[in-house]
Amino acid sequence: MTALLEVENLSKNFGGLQVTSDVSLTLRPGDRCALIGPNGAGKTTFVNLVTGVLDPTAGTIRLEGQDVTRLPAAARVRRGLIRSFQVARLFRSMTVREHLELAILEREGRTFRLFSSVRRTPGLEREVEDLLDLMALGAVAETAVGQLAYGQQRLLEIALALAMRPKVLILDEPAAGVPHSESRRILDAIERLPKDLAVLMIEHDMDLVFRFAKTIVVLAQGRLLCSGTAGEITADPRVREAYLGSRADARRH
Ligand SMILES: Nc1ncnc2c1ncn2[C@@H]1O[C@H](COP(=O)(O)OP(=O)(O)OP(=O)(O)O)[C@@H](O)[C@H]1O
């Protein structure tokens, strides 16, 4: 099957500090991959390199076989590489429905006259309803985003990412700030994502990681330590050592 995302030997230096070292990763349609690693392992830097927020020092990034290593972030978005939105970017007084309408119009390049565009864009209402259903947000469609519970905000972030029609979806801590008891709802929604989408999740909540991921990739000190199924990862002494080592470091500092 053709790879959607191919990352080859990616490296990044900040001055003399190598934060990403020779990391490779491939995602195919339908993949459910989690990227884990102790604090400071380089997960955020890796995502920033892949999405085009940072330029790599070395390595190649391909989307559907095309080299995008030097393309700006917006061009990668247009090719279907989408990262879940950060809640800080949402307008607190706008409703959930209005956010979804705006995201779809933005994708279509039709935000110039927002309200007349909403009426004139065929299929927009249907698409909004589908996204509300998929993310179980129907009951709060007319609620201002500032009034949403954390879990609902996280679901809206995923819905907004989906409105961009991703081929590769990067979920950056989708359950951040959500009480553990509610993270199940986020996972349920993630399990309903289109089957052909490739999903890469960065997440600290291991219950969520183990339930979601078919493959887990472990980073430590900027390097790919190992990758495999949940069973393989938990049995790997190097993983335990990386996590315990980082805790011992944290205690020392
Ligand atoms: N702009 C920068 N300049 C210098 N060093 C940086 C920069 N950005 C990140 N780093 C360093 O790179 C390392 C990796 O950071 P990164 O945020 O990618 O890790 P992470 O795995 O996402 O951590 P966390 O799980 O805590 O979010 C850290 O040591 C960090 O201090």
TrEMBL record:
Start and end residues of each ABC transporter domain: 5-246
What cellular-component terms does GO give this entry?
A: plasma membrane
Record bears the keyword Nucleotide-binding: yes
Q: Which domain of life is it from?
A: Bacteria
Q: Which UniProt keywords apply?
A: ATP-binding, Nucleotide-binding, Plasmid, Transport
Q: Which InterPro entries match?
A: AAA+_ATPase, ABC_AA/LPS_Transport, ABC_transporter-like_ATP-bd, ABC_transporter-like_CS, BCA_ABC_TP_C, P-loop_NTPase
Q: What is this protein called?
A: Branched-chain amino acid ABC transporter ATP-binding protein
